[in-house]
Amino acid sequence: MRLTEHERSVQKEIERWQRGDESLIAQALNWAMSPMDWVVERVVPEELVDQADKALLQFLSLLNDASTWTYEPKEALRVARSKGIEAEDITELRDHDLKILDGIAKSYVSENAILAAVEGGGTGLGGAVMMAADIPLLFGINLRLIQQIGAAYGFDVSTPAFSPLVLSIFNVAASGSKESKNQALREITVAAAALAQVSEYRGRVSGTFRDQNRNLLREIAKNIGGRKIAQVIPIAGAAIGAGINYWFTTETAESAFMLFRALYIERKERS
Q: Cβ neighbours of residue 205 under 8 Å, at least 6 residues apart?
């Protein structure tokens, strides 16, 4: 199906994002966190690092459990109708103006970023005791954000079947690397092919959930776990918790925004 001028412009934007380096927010955080990274490496006990990694891996592994998927995608329908879009089912949004859908997707970012920052600041005051609680809360907020943005483009990703795609978005957000973006866009191609043929999306890699996503789970833990550990540093913990959570949520939003637009366009081209 032929693309509109706006959709071709978005394609170029996605290509620039794919080739680009870390965002300015990520670069600023890396600079600000350098002294904290040094402190963590020399002061924080190894068992605390293991505790953070286990909390993160445990939550991400639960993405294969339907009980963790609580978002109601019909919320996006209510927002779309307020923008003048007539749709009875979430999938109908895939055939509406991408520019309008972009606006709906962007509307979810600020509230979630602020919520994550407030949550991170609060748990950061609790040191090691609250750190284990902070990680699932942060990823829960970001999981809902991914589901919201996906629904804005007509994709109901509120089921465990889409966990490989969700993990790909988390991996891009955590690392910001070109390699993670390339991997995520390959996952998008698989999803687009399945959706265009009205068949079931199963993920790019065969096998069980853990087999499919073993490397992604490790990469996400590596890129986020160490930063969250810095929250146990006295006095600075609240500010670090708020800053890291805000950074991660805005990175998740941008990654989801780019990748779901890519899915929208690629599915349209294949239909």
A: 164, 211, 212, 213
Spatial distance between the Cα atoms of 174 and 171, rounded to a whole number of angstroms: 5
In the numeric block, the tokens 């629904």 are attached to: 151
Cβ–Cβ under 8 Å, residues 101 and 117: no
Which tokens belong to 100?
A: 């309008």
Q: Is the pLDDT of residue 67 over 60?
A: no
Predicted TM-score (pTM) of this structure: 0.82
Exposure pattern of 171-202 as b/e (b: 16+ CB <10 Å)?
bbbbbbeeebbebbbebbebbbebbeeeeebe
Q: Which of 244, 222, 248 is nearest to 231 (CA)?
A: 244
Cα 194 to Cα 109: distance, rounded to the nearest angstrom = 28
Question: Helices 98-106 and 5-19 sit at what angle, rounded to 10 degrees?
Answer: 50
How close are the terminal C-alpha atoms of the chain, in Å? 6
Q: What's the CA angle centered on 256, arms 254 and 259, to 5 degrees?
A: 105
HSE, side-chain direction, 13 A CA sphere, residue 74: 2
82-88: Cβ within 8 A, 24+ apart: none
Check whether 32 has a pLDDT greater than 60.
Answer: no
92 neighbors 154 (Cβ within 8 angstroms) = yes
Q: Is 73 exposed, middle or buried (0-12, 13-18, 19+ CB in 10 A)?
A: buried
Please compute the mean of the pLDDT values over residues 24-47 and round it to a whole number: 53
- Residue 135 DSSP SS3: helix
Amino acid sitting at position 48: L
